Amino acid sequence: MSTTLYGIKNCDTVKKARKWLEQHQISYVFVDHRADGLNPNNLHHWLDTLGWEQLVNKRSTTYRTLPDADKANLGPDTASALLLAHPTLIKRPLLDNHGQLSVGFKDAQYAELFSK
Questions:
Q1: Nearest-5° angle of CA 81, CA 86, CA 92?
Q2: Which residue is catalytic, options 8, 11, 55, 56?
Q3: Is 11 annotated in the active site?
Q4: Domains of the chain (ranges plus CATH)?
Q5: How confident is the model at residue 74 (pLDDT cuts 50, 70, 90)?
Q6: What band does 58 get if pLDDT is binned at 50, 70 and 90?
Q7: For a disulfide at 98, which of 1, 14, 40, 55, Cβ 3.0-4.6 Å?
Q8: Is the pTM above the cut of 0.70?
Q9: Alpha-carbon span 17 to 107, nearest angstrom
C-alpha cells in the first residue's frame, strides 16, 4: 500500500495538501477526479468506511447547482450514484495513507497522520 491523494488539481485545499506532502518529503500518487475519473470500487469503499455524510461536500458549487430533488433525496441509497455522476461533490482532498482514510486538510491533521 502507498499514499494516494484524491481531489481536483485546481482546488486550493488540494494544493495546500500537496505542498505539505512535498515539503515533508512524503511520496504520494495524486488522482484527479475530474481528469482521471472516479473509480466506483474506491467510491464504494470510501462510502462504507467514511459514510456519505462525510464524503459529500454540501458547500461546493456543484452541490449548490444540483436540482432540489437530488438534494432532497440525498442519502445512503442515492449518494453513490450522485457522486459518480458528479465527482467534484466529494470533499477534498481525500487521503488514503496505507489504508487509513482522511478527508480535508489541516497541517496538524496531516502531521498526526504521518507521525504514526
A1: 110
A2: 11
A3: yes
A4: 3-113 (3.40.30.10)
A5: very high
A6: very high
A7: 1
A8: yes
A9: 8
